[in-house]
Design a protein that fits this description.
This protein is an alpha/beta fold. It is about 35% helix and about 25% strand. The protein has eleven helices and 13 strands. A six-stranded mixed sheet has the order 8-12-7-11-9-10, sandwiched between helices. Strands 4-1-5-13-6 form a five-stranded mixed sheet. Strands 2-3 form a two-stranded antiparallel sheet. Helix 8 links the parallel strand 9 and strand 10. Helix 5 packs across helix 8, helix 6 crosses helix 7 and helix 6 runs antiparallel to helix 8.
Length: about 300
């Protein structure tokens, strides 16, 4: 009898072990933490970020959504992630808390981030009028043919501005206009960075920008001065994207230079602004950054595949 009781007890223990093992297998995933990925919360850049996450192999997106999909256009999550729309200027500060963030060039450069050194994946962009993500200088529609504004656009689309953009911002920005190959020259960068000009006896043009990475305008100012055009660029720095177009439309500034074609189009459509692009400046690809992962493959290893 003792032997039978012992066998019965051992059978129950074995059954309990099996049940616990099965329970662990089937509930293990439910204990896995969903990891957050921050993306810009403005419409067009959020769409670009969603496309970048698709390129990374983290999600699938409805192909009919085109260049600017929304969250609702995500058809499948391939990994257990939560996409968190966030103000673009706050994304760099969230890298300590989130698995990754998609950050645009302006705010990446301002926080010392380089796409080639720090990025896991960089958005692919090409020059050309069909690219909706080329940044532009915008003016009020009734002033789009203003000769002073045309001279500013011309002064921007010069070789020295291209060289400064590429050297000063270390791949964060690329010129959206033609330029020749060149050799890096630190003294040239320092010369432009330290360039100063006086507004005395000059026509002052207020240009609205976002972020702190706008020193290429010193090269533009130098070009204007070298040609004795008597134009002085006064930068007006805005903290958020929604302000420069409002300021331009209400005549608080003369031009702005912070946005791409797609964002400008969406703002004009949504807010009824009477403003238009008058010249192309730069291309600022979005980049996927992470402090906890050194590669896209490493990031995926930390995520739970669905």
């Amino acid at each position: 009898m003792f032997k039978n009781k012992l066998l019965s007890f051992l059978s129950k223990v074995c059954l309990l072990v099996v049940i616990i093992s099965v329970f662990t297998v089937f509930t293990g995933c439910s204990n896995t933490k969903t990891l957050k990925i921050g993306v810009p919360n403005d419409g067009t850049n959020q769409g670009r970020a969603i496309k970048l996450l698709e390129s990374a192999g983290l999600i699938e997106v409805d192909p009919n959504a085109g260049y600017s999909p929304e969250l609702k256009d995500i058809t499948k999550y391939l990994y257990d992630i939560q996409i968190v729309p966030t103000k673009p200027e706050l994304l760099p500060s969230l890298l300590d808390d989130y698995a990754a963030c998609i950050i645009n060039g302006q705010f990446a450069a301002a926080n010392g981030l380089s796409p080639s050194k720090d990025g896991l994946l960089v958005e692919k962009q090409e020059e050309g009028s069909s690219n909706p993500y080329i940044n532009v200088i915008a003016a009020r529609t009734n002033e789009k043919d203003n000769e002073i504004y045309k001279q500013i656009v011309n002064a921007y689309q010069k070789q020295n501005v291209a060289e400064y953009l590429l050297q000063r911002y270390n791949e964060t920005y690329y010129p959206a206009f033609s330029y020749s190959e060149f050799t890096n020259d630190e003294s040239f960068v320092n010369e432009i960075t330290n360039y100063t000009s006086s507004k005395e006896n000059k026509t002052v043009v207020k240009v609205g920008v976002c972020g702190q990475s706008n020193e290429q305008w010193k090269a533009v100012q130098k070009n204007l001065d070298d040609e004795n055009l008597n134009i002085y660029i006064e930068l007006v720095i805005f903290s958020t994207y929604n302000l420069p177009n409002e300021a331009l439309n209400s005549k608080d500034i003369d031009l702005n230079a912070f946005q791409h074609y797609a964002y400008l189009e969406s703002e004009v459509k949504a807010e009824g602004y009477d403003i238009v692009a008058i010249g192309e400046t730069l291309i600022a690809p979005l980049t996927l950054y992470s402090k906890g992962s050194n590669s896209l493959e490493q990031l995926k290893e930390k995520l739970t595949k669905i």
